[in-house]
Amino acid sequence: MSTLQVIWFLLIGILLTGYAILDGFDLGLGAWHLFAKKNEHRRVLLNAVGPVWDGNEVWLLTGGGAIFAAFPPVYASVFSGFYLALILVLLGLIFRAVSIEFRHQVDDDRWRRLWDLAFSLGSLLPALLFGVALGNVVRGLQLDAAGNYVGGFLALLNPYALLVGLTGLAMFATHGALFAVLKSEGELQQQARGWVGQAWLAYLVLFLASTGWSLAAFQRGSPVLPAIASALALAAIVGIKLFAGRSAHGKAFLSSALAMVGIFGAVGATLFPDMVPAANDPALSLTVYNSSSSQNTLTVMLILALVGMPIVLGYTIWIYRLFRGKVVLGEESY
Q1: Which H or E run contains 287?
Q2: Confidence tier at 334 by pLDDT (50, 70, 90)
Q3: In Å, what is the CA distance from 244 to each residue of 45, 75, 152, 170, 239?
Q4: Which of 174, 175, 225, 263 has its CA 20 to 30 A from that of 49?
């Protein structure tokens, strides 16, 4: 049974990494949306993500569902402990989705500014809070004997978690700026190239700070694998700058995605075999072994995953191939 538990730990990591890569550029592009100079530029940004944003969020829903089915106590502990933060994330995602559909419905500047603000805030808030949640999991939560979170909301806003949250925001901002470069032309593309440089510098500094803190303070096992994964992530982050400097923005975007793989790999290697470390007493930690579903449940779910994941991957590849290339505005545009 331990093999199945490890497999599901890895699959959940893959799903969450896939979400970060795919919806990460949506969130990052939304963070830059208010900085676009013209209405036409903002329309380009919205049309860049309009056909794909909802498909990207399937990865988040699937990851959450997998945690619920494979590790129910982890789902209960994390989702109850982060209840207020998750409500804010959901509100942000809802406002972001609504703004994409509503912005173009009325030809009025005040109407558009309202939904522009909703789109940006609905992108910024999840981008920050996802990192804060991840930082708290790595740091460890105050758990009781039943695995319930017993700390307060303010305890989640600790310096380490906020640092990880800012790192995640810079990561998504860099990813989104690179996507904006790939999908735009002319004045907007030049502005987006400037966004890449600004976000990348913050990303590098915050990554080094959060990684150093993590390796120094929150290693519960061997630091070798987390250090290797972090080094690979750092190399990919440096690659972003090198490729962007040569105007090879497609390769820079790929390097940004590889950096996320390295970062999530480092997080997984730091946590394993814990799913939710208990900061107050390691014996109370929720691990892949003491918080998993039954063998039958994990087996049936694995079969479903082997059928479903290729379908999701196929759909994702198809939709990105269909909407590849630069955005061209038309009557049906957002």
Answers
A1: strand 286-287
A2: low
A3: 19, 39, 43, 16, 8
A4: 263
Predicted local distance difference test score (pLDDT) of residue 331: 52
Handedness of CA 133, 139, 140, 142 (dihedral sign): negative
Identify the three-state secondary structure at position 221.
Answer: coil
Whether residue 179 has pLDDT greater than 90: yes
**Three-state secondary-structure class, residue 304:** helix
Decide if 252 contacts 175 (C-beta within 8 A): no
Closest CA to 220 of 155, 265, 159, 269: 269
Query: Residue 275 in contact with residue 286, Cβ under 8 Å?
Result: yes
Q: Where are the domains of the chain?
A: 2-322
Residue 88 tokens read as: 């804010």
CA 204 to chain centre: 17
In this prediction the pTM is 0.92
pLDDT, position 201: 95
| Mean pLDDT, range 62-75, rounded to an integer | 90
Do 190 and 178 meet the contact criterion of CB atoms below 8 Å apart? no
| Residues comprising the chain, all counted | 334
Alpha helices in the chain (DSSP H): 2-32, 39-49, 53-56, 58-70, 72-81, 83-102, 109-139, 159-183, 186-217, 224-245, 249-271, 295-322
Instruction: Please measure the distance between the N-terminal and C-terminal CA atoms of the chain and give it in whole angstroms.
Output: 50
Nearest Cα neighbor of 45 from 96, 94, 89 is: 96
